[in-house]
Design brief:
three-stranded antiparallel sheet, 3 helices, alpha+beta
Length: 147
Amino acid sequence: MSQYKDDDRFFKYIDILQERVAFKDPILLPIGEHLHIVSKKKEPQGERVVKCSCGYEFGHYTENWKLKAVINVRNDEEAIAEIYPGRHSYDPEWMEIREFICPSCARLLEVEAAAPGYPIVFDFLPYLETFYRDWLGKELPAEPKRD
């Protein structure tokens, strides 16, 4: 089936996403339903950051955006029962649910389940230049040096 796909389908998808967001910074890569790696138009121009669809900026894409989100942790029986009632529940001594929420628009961006005390997971660190060059056949403009 791959041979029947448009060569430019990724860029068509990016165009559709770009129309739906509240900012003009070019989207380089979607990393979640409402999360995008973008290239900033403002200073420092060209810096690659993670943004929510509402425009809230979580920081450089090589840093864990979740650390700048509002985090709701479900780690007791009452909070767990709100989403997993009765026999569908689990033991909060063995697992907790972390909900990552945009501080600006209050949109739920991601949920992770982990053992209590386990560090927040950094899910995704793409090699943007390699993806663009080797998979898409395009070159990304250089990102400015960071301090």
